[in-house]
Amino acid sequence: MGHASHSTARDEYYMHRCLELARKGAGLVSPNPMVGSVIVVEDRVVGEGFHERYGGPHAEVNALASVSDASLLPSSTLYVNLEPCSHYGKTPPCSDLIISKKIRRVVVGCLDPHEKVAGKGIEKLRQAGVEVTIGVLQRESEALNEAFIKSHTISMPFVVLKTAQTIDGRIAVASGESKWVTGAESRREVHRMRSVHDAVMTTSSTVIADNSRLTVRHCEGRNPVRVVLDRLLRVPLSSAIFDGEAKTILYTSNALGSSEKARALKAMGVIVCAAGDDGDFLDLSAVLKSLHDEHALLSIMVEAGGTLAGALIRHRLVDRIVWFVAPKLFGADGLGAVGSLGLQSVDDAPVMRFSSSRFLGNDLCIESSVFFE
Ligand SMILES: [Zn+2]
Predict the structure, then answer these.
(1) Residue 94 alpha carbon to ligand 1 centre in Å
(2) Is 306 annotated for ligand binding?
(3) Strands, E, within the chain: which ranges?
(4) Residue 319's pLDDT is what?
(5) Residue 204 Cα, ligand 1 centroid: separation in angstroms?
(6) pLDDT of 188-209, one tens digit each?
(7) 60 in catalytic set
(8) Taking the CB of the first residue and of the last residue of the chain, which one, N or C, has fewer CB atoms within 10 A?
(9) pLDDT below 70 — which residues of the chain?
(10) 219 carries a ligand binding annotation
């Protein structure tokens, strides 16, 4: 996507600041992208801003509004991690605003894949005589808005699977007991992850076993939408997940979508949706598509047992896995973090690339991207 031209260490320095600002919108701007913008004159920051909430002004608008001396703008460079928009959305196009303010140069992290933008913002700026540099910290810029980019590329949500497991890959002992596998620091990080994902998805089995609420309690931040997969409508109405603290969507089979229990759930404020199933599983691809298209949920964090993890991986629906690994052993009779993948040959194994690792208290937190051939 684009090429880096005239990129310098200074450009990267200010683009880092854009990314830092953009991240402040995490959890608040979806389904819009996270965007930060910095305005620089002669190596001095004269304005900055970010997209603060969905429907609010874009980063460039906020950055331009923060400049106290508008006479500086014609000699300024505007940095922004995503291509300025060229279409009328909830706000007028930022590229028009930049042109009207006579900004000399614009530095962009990555292009906006949104079909109404996709290079048109850059084109408009260049046609108006603005010098444009694209692709500064492109990889980082694309990574920040990976869910937004996936959504506008293939209309599916970005799926992050989380496991809390022992070093031998177990999430529970044979009895099913699974509380406190990992420590307090890991738990806080899981809550932080919830606060920045659009939704957290789990299964009836996990709700029945753990009675978890899936809300954000161990850190600051807003609750994600909760999604429960319950093909057989087994989840008790008294489950903590139906506490009304956050929007809750339940997917069941087409056969049970209009059942008495489904009606009881709806009466409690739960959004009940029906999806096809194959006799064992709900159609996971259809569920994710529905979450994306009908509920505008672009990033889904999965917190469930090995069965759902295995099924999502088998169906190639996982983008990243975050492994919280405790220095404990549950042995072969414990329950595995990843259920059956139905592999016959080592060559068929999904291949991942580790992207980061760090200690969280006594635990190790490893992130891996999943690549499917
Ligand atoms: Zn804009």
Answers:
(1) 4
(2) yes
(3) 36-41, 44-50, 77-82, 105-110, 131-134, 158-166, 170-172, 199-203, 225-229, 248-253, 271-275, 299-302, 320-326, 335-336, 351-360, 363-371
(4) 95
(5) 41
(6) 999 999 999 999 999 999 999 9
(7) yes
(8) C
(9) 1-7, 90, 372-373
(10) no
Strand, coil or helix: 72: helix
Q: How many angstroms separate the alpha carbon of residue 58 from the centre of ligand 1?
A: 5
- In the block, residue with structure tokens 């990843």: 338
pLDDT per residue as tens digits for the range 239-296: 999 999 999 999 999 999 899 999 999 999 999 999 999 988 999 999 999 999 999 9
Q: Measured on CA atoms in the order 326, 329, 335, 336, is the torsion positive or negative? A: positive
Give the residue from 324, 95, 45, 342 showing the smallest Cα distance to 188. 324
User: According to the annotation, is 323 in a ligand binding site?
Assistant: no
Tell me the C-alpha to C-alpha distance, in Å, between residue 127 and each of 95, 99, 131.
Answer: 11, 10, 10
Q: What is the DSSP letter of 160?
A: E
- Is position 305 annotated in a ligand binding site? yes
Q: Which domains does the chain show, CATH number per domain? A: 9-151 (3.40.140.10), 155-371 (3.40.430.10)
Q: From the CA of 121, how far away is ligand 1's center (Å)?
A: 9
